Every structure is written in structure tokens, then in C-alpha cells.
């Protein structure tokens, strides 16, 4: 079973933020315990007496308002976020990340979480379909942080499996999404950091977190499938997700494929 853990960053109601992001990572079920252990060890280095009380929530770490982050300098707190992202960067080759960044003003009167969830469901389904073409027989399951969207997203997934998304019927998911308390799941905490890293890149032009996991986005044949930037303000966007699709669409048949290092930073 391939597990896609998702969380969101940004707020649809915050007028000071231009973007909202849904993102996370896909891991094979047997890999989840290894990643959990890695974060447990990091938590123990921060709070040896009570490591189980340390929840890695990127925006709270960045803000440094609550314990134990309020005891850290700005550089120390940012170092924790980077250490969490390094757990993803150094993980199994089969682990990959997905994210959908939506420019809010480009999609007025739209439920942005539903919109991004539909997109990532389709991307995860196509990722699983590619694995099946290579001989894989595993299905997928989506796990999200508990939220007010729980009922809506579960019902959406049922519709995707029968009526389909904008991109086709979902065929490779084993069940409707499961929702868990992020404090109880280290992998959801990793998903939170993926979403936050992508949010900082698009909302604040801050690439220091994104760059750590940039090579982990699902990609195939030169196209970065795992990252989508939804916006209507810049048809020549140079971010990895947008640029790789334009490059692939316009390249000669024998042109070499770009790698993540070919993409400019902000």
C-alpha cells in the first residue's frame, strides 16, 4: 500500500496571503515507521524529557511563540524546519512529494481545498498507475490532518471513483481518505512541512525550505508531475512545475529532459 499524507498551508480567509497550498508525501507502508523514528529522534534532541510532546508544525516553529520554539533563536527554529525536511530529502528513493499551490485571486468563488484535493487525487492516482505499468500491484490510501473538510473530502473521493475528476475516474485508491490528529502522526507532520515549504516559495519568494525537497517531487520523463502551480497571472511562470510542462510540450522529440537543477530559484 502506498500512503499519501497531506496537509495544508495558508488560509483562504487571510487577505495578507496570496496562496494556499495542499501538499505532502507518498511513502510505501513499510517506510512509515522509519520516517516516524527519524522524527522521534529529532524530537528527543529538542526535548529529551518529553519528546512525545514535540509536534513539528512548521508555521508554529517559524513563529516561535509557543514552547519549545519560543526558547529558540530565529536561526535555530529555521534549522529545525530544515532538519525535518532533510528527513524527507534523505528518505527512500521511492518516497516522493506532491503539492498544489493555488493563487487565491485567480480562483474567486472556489473552494480552494476541494480544488487542490481533486488535483492531487488525480496526480496520486496517475502516479500509482505508472507504478502498475512497471509491475507494481499496490493501491493507494490518502491520509490527512483532521479538519472541517473531512466529510466533504470523503464524499468527493467517492464521487471521483464513480463519476470521475476533471481528469478521469480514480481507479487506484483502496478507500476514502482517513483523517488523523497531526499530533499522533509524525508523517502528517512531515506533510505539514512539505506544504509549508511550498507555501513559503510561492507566497514569500523564500526558497530555502523548498530547495531541500525539490528533487523529491514526483517526476517522469522530464515532467515534474508532483508540483502544480495554479494561477492565471503569469503565463510564463518559471517555477519547476510550470516550466517543465512548457519545456516538454514545446521541445523537439529528441531533446534532453530538464532536471530540477535546471530550474531558476526566485
Briefly note the CATH topology name.
Nucleotidyltransferase, domain 5
Reported CATH architecture: 2-Layer Sandwich
Give the terminus-to-terminus CA distance.
36 Å
Shape summary: globular
Number of spatially distinct domains: 1
Indicate the radius of gyration in whole angstroms.
18 Å
CATH class: Alpha Beta
Number of distinct beta strands: 8
Major β-sheet, in short?
6 strands, mixed
Tally of helical runs: 8
- Name the average pLDDT: 86
List keywords for this structure.
266 residues; alpha/beta; Nucleotidyltransferase, domain 5; 6-stranded mixed β-sheet; two-stranded antiparallel sheet; 8 helices; 8 strands; 16% strand; disordered C terminus
Please describe what this structure looks like.
The protein has a six-stranded mixed β-sheet, with helices on both faces. It has a two-stranded antiparallel ribbon with strand order 6-7. The protein is globular, with a radius of gyration of 18 Å. The longest helix is centred in the middle third of the chain and has 22 residues. α1 runs antiparallel to α3 and α4 packs across α5. The protein has one domain: Nucleotidyltransferase, domain 5, CATH 3.30.420. β6 and β7 form a beta hairpin. It has 266 residues and is α/β, with parallel strands linked by helices. The protein has eight helices and eight strands, in the order ββαααβαβαβααβββα.
Helices and strands, with pairings:
Layout: E1 2-9, E2 19-28, H1 32-46, H2 58-63, H3 74-89, E3 96-103, H4 112-133, E4 140-145, H5 150-162, E5 178-180, H6 186-204, H7 210-213, E6 219-220, E7 223-224, E8 227-230, H8 240-250
Parallel strand pairs: 1-4, 3-8, 4-5
Antiparallel strand pairs: 1-2, 2-3, 6-7
Helix pairs in contact: 1-3, 4-5
